[in-house]
């Protein structure tokens, strides 16, 4: 179990829950050191006093606020510990809100809250079950290292998690970053929704969510240690610099997503017509193909060509054959 970062209590109305705060995440990144290329000696950062031009130790270093270039206001650790903060040793819950009402950009690192002993077990479990049943999160105030902070408490499995939160004035206004006004057709929206459907997952497990960069760096280090050639990089498919046909790009993306999941990539690529396209298809009458028109013209031309020949043959036959007399009528009997 990781070591305790902070000890205090959760204040929930008149209920107090003694807790320890421990890290909820781990960093598996590979760390590098700086070294001298000529002799591989370590390069270290030394703390030099700019007035005395000498290296100083940690016991000689303090903190302060710079009013001007020549005036410093010293602030000690004791000064910060004695600040009149009501939440100095407590995580004080001030409100319960739906999680959807909290902008994710305000949520920071997460920490597990561990109950401190048997006396904290029951109130800890009470708060955890109440949070789980209400489907809400708690917003709290607390102070670490002399600084008051805002936090969010939520349930994860059997534990309560504390997320550091940013204050409202710490979030920058994104209005200056919005793109210029453009028109997006209904067909393009339907295409984007179709792509989202093909990329929807039930969870975040699988090879797509593995840290391949750290694995590649580890393989590189191992290859260099054994004086071998580093693994060759996989060839990447070249992507166009800009999207010229948005609908074509969406359809191609849907096809590739289906193929990657073992489905027929061309099964639903063309099932993206919007309402405008459907209405146009209903109003537009069906046109005859050019092949039928050509055949009709040929047939008409053939009849026009053979008609004079048939008339001449009939005239020649009429001249040669004697005229037939009509049959005599029998007299009616009286």
Explain how this protein is built.
With 334 residues, the chain is α+β, with helices and mostly antiparallel strands. Helices cover 30% and strands 22% of the residues. It is built from 7 helices and 11 strands. The protein has helices spanning 77-81, 121-134, 186-198, 212-225, 246-260, 275-283, 290-320; strands at residues 4-12, 15-23, 48-49, 54-55, 63-66, 72-75, 90-98, 107-115, 136-144, 147-156, 159-165. The strands form 3 sheets. The protein has a 7-stranded mixed beta barrel with strand order 1-2-8-11-10-9-7. A hairpin with a 2-residue loop joins strand 10 (147-156) and strand 11. The radius of gyration is 42 Å and the shape is extended. It starts with a strand and ends in a 14-residue tail after the last helix. Residues 267-275 and 286-334 have low confidence and may be disordered.
Summarize the structure.
The protein is an alpha+beta fold and 334 residues long. It is built from seven helices and eleven strands. α3 (186-198) runs parallel beside α5.
- Mean of residue pLDDT? 77
Q: By helix and strand content, what is the structural category?
A: alpha+beta
Main β-sheet description: 7 strands, mixed, barrel
Strand content: 15-25%
Q: Percent range for helical residues? A: 25-40%
Number of helices: 7
**What is the approximate shape?**
extended
